[in-house]
Design a protein that fits this description.
The protein has 482 residues and is α+β, with helices and mostly antiparallel strands. It is 40% helix and 21% strand.
């Protein structure tokens, strides 16, 4: 048996999500991304002596919504705590987090890998404030500088800690995908990894297959893309197996992933809870979530992906695959639904969104929210084709013009004279000309080779620049050729 096959990886993820509040968790500073360094700050998030925190109610409600979206139990009583450690971008010298009494526990999400569904447990979800950002510059030791930007200090986070239920990087990738999808649908975070709104630490260990006891775990910190997370986990599994097979032992530590080398490197020995000297935050009262408050938050929860997918299947008659694709993000689901409500054919609308629109946006590196074609105008295009005012071919010709200009299909159609020809008098002459010019195919049709009518219709479409009504052209040929 190959060494890797003898071992089973055990993976748990700690995911940090920035909540989509307008202001920070303990002060009124804005949370917007991209401001000049150290401008969105105040005495509270700078940790100045005498500055007291005030808890942001919106952050608490978004934490509750997160818990509900992950099927967690929301605790009626939870407490904030100080987590003490020292780092240049942590101005207070401690982080306000939650320790033994988090806001939510005991949840789960379902993933699907290779056609098999699996339940991944969520141990807890707790609130905390973010640290600032250290920016390292310089290549030689003598020229190295570290700059600190505290704009991010104090932004509200929810940390979601999974059970060690994942058995490979594919499962970790699927778990992160579902987590991101659910949180975006719930509206609690944009989960924009480029802006640091979603970050992941992976706890990885290996054990002999069939063993009950876990191996020594290693934490890989600050994975800021799904791809890097998968590569880091795969590397770490291989490193630990090789180490054990060569007679060594895995050391519990924190490591960092280097995307350039594709390897992890030791950062520090792994801390334990007592290293942080947790104690209850003395400047903030405990959080009490009443049954009435919980019901109020639950009542305004938006539709989550699984619910929306089921409704798309039932209401619009979509295929399972189509409903899966169209609920990958809330923006995409919203776009499709608006377009479908503006057209008589939801299935055709789904095909236009998934095929032509997403393909064109991908080629330009754009997301659905950046589409120059509004969902109402895409619905209008499908409607014109369904009514016979446009042929499918003309629709394909008009679509790139809509993409380039954002104009409605009717405006483009009228401006460029692209209306479908459905006047039998105008079509009659074109059909007669095609019959006269294609005697061989006409004879084949009359001798029983009726499939040749496709060629004849194609000639009419070519002569009319795609504007002839194909159904009427078919009728005319059959009437004329018998």
């Amino acid at each position: 048996m190959m060494p890797a096959a003898k071992y089973e990886p055990v993976i748990g993820l700690e995911v940090h999500v920035q909540l989509a509040t307008n202001t920070k968790i303990f002060c009124g500073c804005p949370t917007g991304f991209g401001a000049p360094p150290n401008t969105n700050v105040c005495p509270v998030c700078l940790g100045l002596p005498g500055a007291l925190p005030v808890l942001n109610r919106s952050a608490v409600e978004m934490a509750i919504e997160t818990a509900l979206a992950l099927n967690c139990r929301v605790n009626p009583f939870s407490r904030l705590a100080r987590k003490n450690y020292f780092y240049p971008d942590l101005p207070k010298g401690y982080q306000i987090s939650q320790y033994d009494q988090p806001i939510a526990e005991h949840g789960a999400v379902e993933i699907e890998v290779n056609g098999e569904r699996k339940r991944i447990g969520v141990t807890r979800a707790h609130m905390e404030d973010d640290a600032g950002k250290s920016i390292h510059d310089g290549f030689r030791d003598s020229d190295k500088y570290t700059y600190v930007d505290l704009n991010r200090s104090g932004t509200p986070l929810i940390e979601i800690v999974s059970e060690p239920d994942m058995r490979g990087s594919d499962e970790a990738y699927a778990y992160m995908t579902v987590l991101k999808q659910v949180l975006q649908f719930a509206g609690v975070s944009t989960c924009d990894m480029e802006k640091g709104h979603l970050r992941c630490d992976a706890n990885v260990s290996v054990r002999l297959r069939g063993a009950e006891k876990f191996g020594t775990k290693v934490e890989v910190k600050n994975l800021n893309s799904f791809r890097f997370m998968k590569l880091a986990i795969d590397y770490e599994i291989e490193r630990q197996v090789s180490l054990i097979e060569s007679g060594g032992a895995v050391v519990q530590e924190t490591r960092l992933f280097n995307p350039d080398s594709g390897e992890t490197a030791s950062m520090r020995s792994k801390e334990h809870a007592h290293d942080y000297r947790y104690f209850p935050e003395p400047d903030l009262v405990p959080i009490r979530v009443s049954a009435a408050w919980l019901d109020e938050v639950r009542a305004r929860m938006p539709e989550l992906p699984a619910e929306r997918k089921k409704r798309f299947l039932d209401l619009y008659g979509l295929r399972e695959y189509d409903a899966d694709v169209l609920t990958q993000s809330r923006d995409l689901a919203d776009y499709f639904e608006t377009a479908a409500k503006n057209s008589p054919d939801p299935k055709a609308t789904a095909n236009w969104v998934m095929g032509d629109l997403l393909g064109a946006l991908k080629a330009e590196g754009k997301e659905i929210g950046q589409s120059p074609i509004s969902p109402e105008r895409l619905g209008e295009l499908v409607t014109l084709i369904a009514k016979g005012e446009l042929s499918g071919k003309l629709g394909k010709d008009i679509f790139p013009k809509m993409l380039a200009t954002g104009d409605s299909p009717r405006v483009i159609m009228e401006r460029e004279g692209l209306q479908q020809i459905s006047d039998s008098g105008a079509l009659d002459k074109i059909v007669d000309d095609v019959i006269a010019a294609n005697a061989k195919q006409v004879e084949q049709y009359k001798s029983g080779k009726t499939a040749v009518i496709g060629f004849l219709v194609g000639q009419v479409m070519k002569a009319s620049r795609g504007q002839a009504n194909p159904a009427m052209v078919n009728e005319l040929f059959r009437a004329k050729l018998g």
